[in-house]
Amino acid sequence: MNPNNWFTVWSFILFATLLSLSFGWLVNKEQLSIRATMGFGDRQKKFIQVWARVAVLIGIIVPLVLLITFWDVPILRQFFGYYLFVVAVQLGCEVSFSRILCQSVVVVIGTLYTGFRIWQLWSGLQLMADAQPWLGLLWLVLLFWVANLIMLFTLAIPSILPEYELETKDKQYE
């Protein structure tokens, strides 16, 4: 299965949207023992702010530059177009669902979309095998999203778990 075609992209977006909406609704109805907000401390908030800026630079600007660079190569234009479309849908879902449902839904959306994005990029590496000077930039983007997935599992996901809140409060009183 190819993650860089309309059927796969739309199928994923539908799946991720339904899962995110279900998650947010269940959290709002208190049917999941998940926090509605993320329990970040000050240092974690600062880290997330810097991380978001790096994500814009590496995850959006670099692929946009590559799209412009390879505009005349239809298969690469298509690949970067799908990639950037999925990023735009993710950002739209994060902004709207976090306002309508709960803030913690951003963690679920980010995790789902990061996994899909890694799959997209891995597939895209095969397409750019001949573009050696530019291949390093695509590897940089892929490695950033792998690091993002690690960050989500080590920082963001624990921040929405009820046990995390207790650990944070316990550490404050020590």
Overview of the structural elements:
By secondary structure, this protein is mainly alpha-helical. Mean pLDDT is 92; it is low at 166-170. 82% of the residues lie in helices and 0% in strands. α4 runs antiparallel to α5. It has helices at 6-28, 42-69, 74-100, 105-127, 132-160, 162-173. The longest helix has 29 residues, at 132-160. It has one domain (6-13, 43-169).
Question: Which secondary structure elements does this structure contain, and how are they paired or packed?
Answer:
Elements: H1 6-28, H2 42-69, H3 74-100, H4 105-127, H5 132-160, H6 162-173
Q: Helical element count?
A: 6
Shape: globular
Instruction: Give the domain tally.
Output: 1
By DSSP, the count of extended strands is: 0
Low-confidence stretches: 166-170
Sheet/helix structural class: mainly alpha
What proportion of the residues is helical, as a percent range? Answer: over 70%
Beta-strand content bin = under 5%
**Main beta sheet:** none
Distance N to C terminus: 52 Å
* Mean pLDDT over the full residue set: 92
Order of helices and strands: HHHHHH
Q: Rg to the nearest angstrom?
A: 18 Å
